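agent: user wants the structure for Bifunctional glutamine synthetase adenylyltransferase/adenylyl-removing enzyme from Motiliproteus coralliicola. delegating to structure tool.
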Amino acid sequence: MPPSIPASCYDLLPASLASELQTNWQRYQDQADSDQFEQLQELPEAFWQQLSRCWSGSLFVVEQCLNRPELLPDLLPDLERSYDEGEYARRLEQILASAETENELHRCLRQFRHREMSRIIWRDLNRLAEMEQTTADLSALADACIDQALNWLYRWACDKWGTPHSRAREGQPAQPQQMVVIGMGKLGAGELNLSSDIDLIFAFPEMGETEGARRCLDNASFFNKLGQKLIQALDQQTADGFVFRVDMRLRPYGQSGILVPNFAAMEEYYQDQGRDWERYAMIKARVVAGDQQAGAQLMADLRPFVYRKYLDYSAFESLREMKAMINREVRRKQLHGNVKLGPGGIREVEFVAQAFQLIRGGRDSRLQQRELKTILSLLPDAVGMPEQAADELYQAYRMLRNAEHAIQAVQDRQTQELPTEELEQIRIAFSMGFERWEDFIAELEQQRAKVRHHFAEVIAPVDDSDDDESNDDSWALLWKGELDETSAVAEFSAQGFEQPEQAQKLLDNLRSNRKVLALQSIGRERLDRVMPLLLQAVAGQPQPTQTLERTLQLIDSVLRRSAYLVLLWENPGALAQLVKLCSASPWFAEQLAKQPILLDELIDVTSLYAPPNKEQLQQELRQQLLRIPEEDVEQLMEALRYFKHAHVLRVAAAEISGALPLMKVSDYLTYIAEVVLEGALDIAWRILTDKHGLPQQSAGVPCERDFIVVGYGKVGGLELSYGSDLDLVFIHDGALNQHTDGNKPIDNQVFFTRLGQKIIHILNTFTTSGQLYEVDMRLRPSGNSGMLVSSLKAFRDYQLSEAWTWEHQALVRARVVAGSPTLQQRFEAVRAEVLSRQRELPKLRTEVIDMRRKMREHLGSSQSDDTDSAVFHLKQDSGGIVDIEFMVQYLALAYSEQQPALIEYTDNIRILEAAERLERLSVEDAELLREAYKTYRSVGHSRALQEQSSLVDDQQLGELRAKVAGIWKQLMDA
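agent: tool returned. relaying tokens verbatim.
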């Protein structure tokens, strides 16, 4: 007769978990046979208590036992003991010795993993292993799976393609090569959690080729194939599940980098292009599989990148910025219950330790270690941290990690979120040793509060500015409606509001708003705390009533997301910036009301008014995309949109404040577009190549992403403004008679066409965060009737034999904004060839004038040719922006055959400078056109921020307009 769980075991459990255990045990009895039960017959009550705790805490272990009833008796010898060093690897090596095919390898790996994970969870939930032993076991299990799978696959690959060797040198024969696998993050530190990804980087020592097989490969190809096979062996979901989810995005160049670089390429990358966040990541790097000796040398060579010889206090700022990024994500995704990323979570403890490692690790080699416990214990002596602080941080860390394990043990899912369902809360509290969920949460919050305190002391010092006077009683009375209408209007008037009755009405409307009336107590409390501060800040603006109306748009939009009210309350600087910028620009207020998530950008005034350069923009976007699974296209698209909207907001803030002149504003907006286009191209390329493989240049020779995005118009001329669309042309240089090399091959032309379509989809699609850019493809050869993506040859042929003069005018402002640098050079040669052709000047002049006349007639104001008119369309009317652009294009087309400097650049200002230098314009005329162009664009930017049209009624521009029209007449009507 099968054994039963003793009644005393059920008494240990909450009622809901006891009932669940009884059901699961009955299911097990139905599945198991007598031989399996026989081994359980005489086991002591301690075993049944352990089973009750484990099965109550982990439905994953329950399912493993139900799927394989023999698992439970098989685990018995190993539940009470710790494994010896190397035991995981020895056990797995023995199991894999019988695997003859990849499918058998996959099955053996997964069954081994599930057995050992069940053992580890059992020991963890029963506290037979402390947290440190659990994380060490998980890391050792991962090491064994990676290393043994690599060894099996390496032998298989060598049999198929030969053994890779280095190139022979004088006096030194070729040496066999093996891959090196570097574990990053928690795996590298030996601190893996129960359901963690494993972050890996692959590398191999030297270039060379394989030997000993009929079909030889170069080493790069061999190890790339081997790396792909290893990822499949570990990550691929089969009927038996998976081993570990593998994340390769920390490798050089991220998802766009080659899978397995050689050592020299690794060193060059980190020396020349390594970023601060990569220094942070490399702290925990460890060779986990493959050639340990070669890997140790590589890690030694990379050490100077991680640990600087000087005291590097910039690490504080870098980590502060990283934490700010995480905080924004926490708010955006409502992750406050996340024990890893939320306030006072695991990540904050890690940041404290790693800040001092980055700052002092170059000088103090003791800090060049991976394990967090070791680092925290060193900090009192190494940097003077109080011992109590170090102890409190580590004790909090232990509880947070145990909570993380309890959460992940339930279903073997990668989550750190505290549950919201009652049964799951009971389960977690029980696994953590608490009778009630409320008791567990109280203790957890106490520990998180300690982490928040120490983190603020080290990484983000608390703002200690005195704000005792910030909450003036009069503003609170106004907001709460405790003054009668006459008194309220009088108070607004006394505070300087230019329309006190309107201000009172605005406040009344908000108070009576349905959303306000429906607020729960916590939301109402937050609103009541913010509004007096907001009113006080508004009163200090030049037109407070107008400013109040604009800022209340935002308040209305966030009433159901009151976390944003907390942000404004806790960050007075952000509130001040919000009011100041909304006062200056209704456009700014409207953007924030539409996307209040962008409020985060107001917190750091330094970044708000000091825009990054293009390289910094690329780095920032890359970091954001790295945190998103490559297959999650929707999230990648959302990340692109947030990045774009946030930086456009920063541009506007800098322009409004006067911190950024017009030319820099356009540069910044253009850089944003270029970086977004690069990101969209990367995403689209990966999607297409994952499905169809790489396009081939010739049989067996893949294209090196021979694709470019050419920007025309404003983006081509580095003159983007707010709301500009993108005039784009796509060009490729792939072989037209070849196909892709994937499982679903397609013709190269079809591949590149789909690539263009995917890029447009990423840019054009409206999501919850809006649209990235509106894309206009009408400037491609033959316009809307032409191919979406042209080959470079077809583009050249069209431009030389079929294009109209206006298309050559457009080409003056065309430049490559994303894609292959090699193809960019070839495109630039074609552009120069087309633009510098000899032309008949009378004919050219006539065609340019005719096109300009048509544009004025269709797009200008009704008085477009009247320079004395009080109404002036900045762009299209006579003497406006397009007149200047057409004169520039005419000069470029007319004289670049003899003076190629006229087409060296694509922006109007530098072409005008070249025309002056080459004496195609007088100094006076060139200077006037430059100043007029900048003035018009400055007025246009200003009017855009004020949500006004390009039609102006300003006599101040009349004289300038007349002078530009005079230069047009002199140059074009000659």
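agent: one observation worth passing along. Residues 461-471 have pLDDT under 50 and may be disordered.
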